[in-house]
Structures are given as structure tokens and as C-alpha cells.
Design brief:
Layout lengths: L4 E6 L5 H17 L5 E5 L7 H10 L4 E6 L6 H17 L4 E4 L7 H13 L10 E7 L5 H15 L5 E6 L9 E2 H10 L4 E7 L5 H12 L4 E2 L7 H15 L9
Parallel strand pairs: 1-2, 1-3, 3-4, 5-6, 5-8, 6-7, 8-9
Helix pairs in contact: 1-8, 4-8, 6-7
């Protein structure tokens, strides 16, 4: 029996680094599971679009697709945009079975990938006790997404960092995380002498650049790279793919 096609759905960006990083990540996924067909589709800015990929797969007589959102939290795109695109595709392509996988986060694998990037930026495991960490995500006004980022910050605090503060590159609300520069300054005000900023984002683009600018503005000591085509992240994509293939008793496919 042929395995379902894995369709990785990325947001897309005018920044060419975004698509290049997404393709590097999907290439790593292929290398981890030879024989699995992995396709990439974008919601905006980049080609091919998600509908175009699904149309091509249907024309090639593919039986089933697992559509995996390349998203770290369940916010607007996971709850609205992607389900809408997939519903429309199901109505036009009734032969093609389409399952929507869960978003990537939260996951211990994502936390491990983020810590790996911070180590690569120069923070040794023994330095964590004297270093404050800014967990800088893209940002969301969705309460569920905000709560997830806050919980991840708490989890990271228990791994040895002297302090962890969440921050958003955009969509800052009165009761949500502050901007990156403000989070760095708040750690300094609390007496933290060394501050590292860890972007909780997958690929480069406008919002990660805003995180980097905030880190520089506030004088952060360390700026980690984006998660990118991390082997750990590639493993997580396959985990979500496998989870989506297992039918849930008493529930309908998304």
C-alpha cells in the first residue's frame, strides 16, 4: 500500500530566504524517510500554491495526502486559512483524500531544536544558570497561541536558565508578551547580566528580522538563529505526519 503524500504547507514570504529554508527542511525530511513523497505548497507569495499542488497530485492519481501546516502554534492560519483551502480542494477533487495534520508545537522536539540553536550561538550548557533567555516568537492575538508561548517559556525556565521571558515580534497586546527589545531590557532590570534571544520561528523573513533588530537595539549578548532545517525539526514533521495517518476512534478526519 502506497503511503500518503506529505504536503508541507508554509505561509510564504517575499523574502527569498523563507522559501529556501522551507525547501531545505523538506529535503531533510526526505533524507530521513527515503521513499516518502514530500511536496511543498505555500499559502501566499511563493509558488507553488497549495491548491496547485493538490490539483497536480489529483491529476497524477494520488490517493491520499497528509497536509501538514508548517506552524508552531494553532493560531489564525491553522484554524481558518488552511482548513478553508483544504475544504475547497476536497470539494473540487473528491477522489483525493486529504487529512490535515496537527501543527508542530508545542513539542519537546521544538524545545530541543531551539536550545540547539542557542548552543550554536555560543551559550554552553554550563552558562544557562547565569543567562536569561528571551523566547521571541512571531506573535499572535489568538489566546491559545499566546498561552502556548507562555507555557513554553515556563518549561524552558525549568531546564536551567536563570530567567526566561516570552516576546512577540508583532501582535503585542496589553496582557501578552512584550516586544523583543522590551523583554531584553526587563531581564536586565531584573539583574540578569547576560541575555540571549532565541527566535521561535522556522524561517527567515520580516518578523525574524524584527526580532534580530530588537535584540540589537536592546544590546542582547547572544542572538540565536531561526530553527531552520534542523534535523530535530525534520523528525517532528515526520512525527506529525505519522500521527495524522492514525485514525481517531469516534472522530472524523480533519
Amino acid at each position: 500500500m502506497t503511503s500518503p503524500v506529505l504536503l508541507v504547507i508554509a505561509h510564504g514570504s517575499r523574502d527569498p530566504r523563507h522559501a529556501a529554508t522551507v525547501h531545505a527542511l523538506t529535503a531533510r525530511v526526505r533524507s530521513l524517510r527515503p521513499g516518502l513523497r514530500v511536496e511543498t505548497g505555500f499559502l501566499d507569495f511563493n509558488a507553488p500554491s497549495v491548491p496547485r499542488v493538490l490539483e497536480r497530485l489529483a491529476a497524477e492519481r494520488a490517493d491520499e495526502v497528509v497536509a501538514l501546516p508548517l506552524l508552531l502554534t494553532r493560531a489564525f492560519h491553522a484554524k481558518s486559512d488552511i482548513p478553508s483551502v483544504l475544504r475547497e480542494a476536497r470539494s473540487r477533487l473528491p477522489r483525493l483524500r486529504i487529512r490535515q495534520a496537527g501543527v508542530l508545537g508545542p513539542s519537546p522536539l521544538l524545545n530541543a531544536a531551539l536550545e540547539q540553536r542557542v548552543r550554536e550561538a555560543g551559550v554552553a550548557p554550563g552558562d544557562k544558570g547565569s543567562t536569561g533567555l528571551v523566547l521571541a516568537s512571531a506573535g499572535s492575538t489568538d489566546p491559545e497561541a499566546v498561552a502556548v508561548i507562555a507555557e513554553i517559556a515556563r518549561e524552558l525556565r525549568h531546564t536551567g536558565w536563570c530567567a526566561v521571558r516570552p516576546a512577540f515580534a508583532s501582535a503585542v497586546t496589553a496582557d501578552g508578551p512584550s516586544r523583543t527589545a522590551d523583554a531584553v531590557r526587563a531581564l536586565r532590570a531584573d539583574g540578569v547580566r547576560r541575555v540571549a534571544v532565541a527566535p521561535y520561528v522556522i524561517a527567515p523573513g520580516r518578523l525574524p528580522d524584527r526580532i534580530a533588530a530588537g535584540a540589537e537595539e536592546a544590546g542582547a549578548d547572544v542572538l540565536a538563529g531561526v530553527l531552520g532545517p534542523s534535523p530535530v525539526l525534520a523528525r517532528l514533521l515526520l512525527t506529525r505526519y505519522d500521527e495524522a495517518r492514525v485514525p481517531v476512534v469516534g472522530a472524523m478526519s480533519a
